[in-house]
């Protein structure tokens, strides 16, 4: 075996990545930050410095693995490390071994079952599902006394694993036995990659000329904006504000997406001149319907909640239930809520129209604000809404299998409001019927929600408060 000459000089961000010693170390964000080079170089340095080290470097597909790592490492380690093509591994003179692998589907993880690696790297980590990541973490173990197991990640915003990556490394929202000190993220942008800036400055111009949402993700590494994102209108700095005291005269209503093992997402909304403010959140799991209803009543206090729209499946008969007096009876979830003081109205569950309504409410208005604004205490809504992506087969819909409970609840809420149009056309009741098969009725002052139609003398005040 000869000598190995490692070419290239790391930039400041890559040096941070090389020096980090946490259990989980992530690098990247924007495109062009030198992620693949940094991952390869770190693995080679570890293999050289720790004899007998076992390393596993993964990409999602075999073609990606070959182009991004196999070919570059063959060139760099030629004549120094022995390469075996059948298992895509490089064995170093000191006994260290870098195995290159792929994991195209969830079931592919089982080819690594029972294997043990001191170091595991997920290249383009957001292309891996959370199940994959969790599985590989169980293989990241070691009996060595001179080295503690580590996992390395590189990634850009977007992809099926965007949510788990963002939770761990960007939002730093930890669960169970996860500890903040075990997770480090080193952000990198194309401007940090001096080699690329010098050799291909046109690449920066390409990123700078992208549409606004893509430029935010690819150039600036904004984790709230990414390719495939469903609500591309989302901007945290315009849609989220600090809470303020809601005036008593504002029209208020609630929305519910029911869940027991899945989260039950309840939101409180207030209306001011057609603008909807979502001001309170209840996001809980494994809580009985009666207890959720009591919690809603408690949180609402003396507020005048005009109506509550809820997921239609709450009206499905679900077998035996417990009423508020402790008696067993067969009823649906909606009846349990109403027994405990929360009167419900079945929501309009047209998914495509509902998502479209939400987009319209998220658009900027002439006054520089959207029609839907969220208080920053609604943490789960703010966390999950920008993570929703398009369904691969039904592109106008949100993809299944994502944490969409908060979004579903707010979809029900905004579907109970008028369309987000600039003007509201007033239609005489002499020309239009008074009864429609919708939550709305027609009055001399236009379309109104059923609950907002009071006596003739009270109509004007109700309509003004409701923002219709």
UniProtKB/TrEMBL annotation:
Mind telling me which Pfam families this protein's record contains?
Terminase_6N
Instruction: Supply the source organism's classification.
Output: Bacteria, Bacillati, Bacillota, Bacilli, Bacillales
Entry-linked InterPro entries: P-loop_NTPase
Q: Which domain of life is it from?
A: Bacteria
Q: Which organism is it from?
A: Cohnella xylanilytica
Protein name as annotated: Terminase family protein
